[in-house]
Amino acid sequence: MKGDRIPSKHHVGRHCTPSRLLIHEETGLITGIDPSAFRADSDGISVNWLEYHEGAETGSFADMCGLMKAARKVKLTDRVAVMAVKEIEATPGVNGGSLHVEHDPLDGQQLNPGHSLIKGVGPDDTDVLHELSVLVDVRVFA
């Protein structure tokens, strides 16, 4: 339900374009994502709740990706940054605050029942955005 906290044992994903990926110069392999991939709006950072889609512990990565693809154009070179909610919650926020993830389903034209928000971080909180960027597991879209 809107505003409910996502359980700590669950995961969220964020769409990343190639310009936000960190690429090793010699190997060409993706080594992570740039902190700018976590663009924070006034209400939080937009993510998708992985386990929402099946209601099971493993969730459905393919279903989550499908909703992302329905909302925006996804290229073959785009990736998904997946993070554990418990690691987000363990990240210190600004002024000693804490981060958490809230369910924020979208309806209307951009129907996305698994949409969620990372709360407790603002657009200028560069240290927090950097901390989030190291928590990711970068995956290919399903």
Q: What are the key terms here?
A:
142 residues; alpha+beta; two-stranded antiparallel sheet; 3 helices; 8 strands; globular
What does this structure look like?
This protein has helices at residues 61-71, 85-89, 126-133; strands spanning 11-16, 21-23, 30-33, 45-49, 79-84, 100-103, 115-119, 137-140. The protein has 142 residues and is α+β, with helices and mostly antiparallel strands. It has a six-stranded antiparallel sheet with strand order 6-7-4-1-5-8. A hairpin with a 6-residue loop joins strand 2 and strand 3.
Question: Layout of SSEs?
Answer:
Blueprint: E1 11-16, E2 21-23, E3 30-33, E4 45-49, H1 61-71, E5 79-84, H2 85-89, E6 100-103, E7 115-119, H3 126-133, E8 137-140
Antiparallel strand pairs: 1-4, 1-5, 2-3, 4-7, 5-8, 6-7
Structure summary:
17% of the residues lie in helices and 26% in strands. The chain has helices at 61-71, 85-89, 126-133, and strands spanning 11-16, 21-23, 30-33, 45-49, 79-84, 100-103, 115-119, 137-140.
CA gyration radius, whole angstroms: 14 Å
Order of helices and strands: EEEEHEHEEHE
Q: What overall form do the CA principal axes indicate?
A: globular
Count of DSSP-assigned helices: 3
Number of strands: 8
Distance between the termini: 26 Å
Percent helix among the residues?
Answer: 10-25%
Name the beta content range.
25-35%
Provide the structure class. alpha+beta
Q: Roughly what is the average pLDDT, rounded to an integer?
A: 88
Q: How many strands, what sense, and barrel or not for the largest sheet?
A: 6 strands, antiparallel
Low-confidence stretches: none
- Biggest sheet: strands side by side, in what order? 6-7-4-1-5-8
